[in-house]
Amino acid sequence: MTTPKATVVGAKASAVGANPVADLIRTFIGDGTADNPNAGILFGNGYSYTEFDGTYCTSEAACNGGTGGLIGNGGNGYNGGAGGAAGWFGNGGNGGDAISAGAAGGNGGRGGILFGNGGDGGDGAAAVGMAGGGAGGRGGMAGSMIMLGEAGGLPTSLYGNGGNGGNGGDAVMGTAGAGGRGGMAAIIGSGGTGGNGGNITGMGGGTAGNGGNGG
User: Fold this and answer.
1) How far apart are CA 87 and CA 64, in angstroms?
2) What pTM was computed for the model?
3) Would residue 55 count as lying in a domain?
4) Which of 4, 36, 56, 133 is deepest in the core (most CB within 10 A)?
């Protein structure tokens, strides 16, 4: 008797919790959540993961930040996850700093296609033993790019700064991580600063990381 009753109660609770109107609104308007990180299509910010989201972000898995709506910011990544991209107006999310030894930092999210800054890249994690340090994440670009053949590309964003590259992780005896490249700026704005290369913390024999290029 107990098991069938529990099953019926669970089904009833699920039916009561379902709200088609709220679900429809959330499709277009609303901020991201841990289990549904992308924002609504029109308005809303992508979800930013943190150390408290252990159900979704384990030590082995990177979590990417949610994407923003047409008007909205991208969410921050965690544990080497990439920052979420903004929509048309908004800032890209920051890439997550790497946690596992020698892992690379996450790339910053793209800024709004018309207006907004790119997110900063996450820092690479330090290495242990003879292993190499993690590379810093690339800074997000401000907006997108329209390719013009051999002439190169033209930014779509009117205003915005490129995100800064993340710093490379240190190494003990191996090769330290390279700094991430800075993101490209919009038509009006500044390119991101490249991240610093990692250092050697041992007694010698390793190779320091290269710094990242500016955007």
Assistant:
1) 16
2) 0.86
3) no
4) 133
Does 77 reside within a domain? Answer: yes
Band (54; pLDDT cuts 50, 70, 90): confident
Both tokens assigned to 79: 């544990």
Among residues 5, 13, 56, 9, the alpha carbon closest in space to that of 34 is found at 56
In a domain, 54, yes or no: no
Split into its structural domains, the chain has a count of 1
- Contact of 56 with 47, CB cutoff 8 Å: no
48-56 LR contacts (CB < 8 Å, sep 24+) = 48/75, 48/76, 48/78, 48/93, 49/75, 49/76, 49/77, 49/78, 49/79, 49/81, 49/96, 50/78, 51/78, 53/78
As beta bridge partners, residue 171 has 200
Which residues, 6+ apart, have CB-to-CB distance to 201 below 8 Å? Answer: 126, 170, 171, 172
pLDDT digits (tens, 9 = 90+) for 197-212: 999 887 665 676 677 7
For residues 112-118, average pLDDT: 96
Q: How many residues does the chain have?
A: 215
Range of the domain at 84: 1-48+61-215
What is the C-alpha to C-alpha distance for residues 126 and 143, in angstroms, rounded to an integer?
31
pLDDT grade for 55, boundaries at 50, 70 and 90: confident
Could you tell me the pLDDT band of residue 186, with boundaries at 50, 70 and 90?
very high
* Cα–Cα dist 141/111, whole Å: 6
